[in-house]
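Appendix B, record 7
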Amino acid sequence: MNSIVRATVGGVCLGAGVAIGAHSGGWFLLLAVALAAMGMAVVAGALTRPVTAGAAGELVPVTVDMIDRSAANPAIASTVVAGEARPAGDAPFRFHHQAQLSRAQIAGLVTDGRGELPSEALGAPPGGLAVTEHRGGRGHAPAALAALAAMWATMLLPPSGIWDLKPLTRSVSAAAPSAISADPGSRPLWQWYDEALAHLRTEAPDALTALLDFDIRDTDVDVEVYLGADRVRVHEGDADGWTTSEATTASRSRDTFTVDDLQGFSVRDFLAGAAAMLPPEHREAAVVEIARNNDDIFGAERPVLAQGRFGQPSITVQGKTDGTIASWWPPDDVAAGLRQVEAALAAAGIPADAADIKDIDLSTGSDGDFSVDFYRGERYSRIRAQAGRFPSAEDPIGEGQFTRFRLSDVSPAVVVAARDDAMRRYEVDPVDRGKAALTIGEWGSDGGARADEVVIEVDFHDAHGGTAVYTLSGELLTG
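Structure tokens (predicted):
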């Protein structure tokens, strides 16, 4: 049994070495060679382990086939004994030897053919005198089969990709998707960000109070620091180290931010949170930029934002430095777009059952943007948003008396059905469903006697179609 165990262990090592060598590269090839060599040595040892003579007087388990003694008195006659010896930790072997055995030893063997004999009663081991016989291929067959089975099981049974150890050299975290490049200098984007902060804290602590921009890619990171007037210093980091240069800039002190604005912010968490919302083919970030936003967003004036670009064609997702990430939704998902409208209105203090909405424009194209106009008293304002970006700050538009309605009056299912009916009406290919421009609001002068009625307008001109108008209950009015 010991030889089978050794052969199995050797087969596992040999299979692992072959598999790693086939799927991995770089320094892991050394591991493959070492494992394969160790496996071959262990298997060979299990199959060719020599028989060695035991110490004088050492008892060896035996199975006896023949006992022959010519006289009853052991003092004057020796005993011829033949059978198979099974030394502990050694290979079994056949023996045929003439030895001096006591009556007790002979009695124990005669009972059932099994017992123990001292090593000197077995004669020389195989390879010595011809009185012994080593078991050949038949005895090694179980160990050989065990080694072969272990080798193939090790190579074929583990999950796909387990032997590809190359990603381990890149320190890639599964929790934070990042762009992976064939360039040996590539690193996860979050790692470049952490290294940039560490570099500035050590080499340029004064820069941490006048930051302008982080531009992070998989092989390098640039950090712009404002020097005053129209000058900027750029700290550039890549696999070869850090360099600095100076250039002109259109930015000013109002565009700067400090390391305190980044307190607690994690690029790693931002990438993971953004990727969780996106389709599988858009979960790898190519670029992350961190800068003060040029425009106000709802609830903040020109905040510091992280902006990641994912996949190709790229999807942009924004995140605040407090960890909040902008919502992303499939642009052609009308129901999801209306839920985002509801969330924007709720944040502005307009409940779904308040008759304060003037109109809603919803694009189902690549950007998935919307705008909603709503009343505060006699004046109406506008909020805009886009999938992956934060809603804009409330923008006062003006005055005007238009038919008002409640968001709760609008059924997402009815709007989807109207869009799909217009697609059939204008023979729009399903791949172009995102070219619908949806407007919900007062019909206006085109409505004639029904000018004041709130309707759903589906415009497919971008898909070589027309415009269809429906009631809020889904009845076709024109188109």
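Remarks on this record: The first strand starts at residue 59 and ends at 69. Residues 174 and 204 are 32 Å apart (CA to CA).
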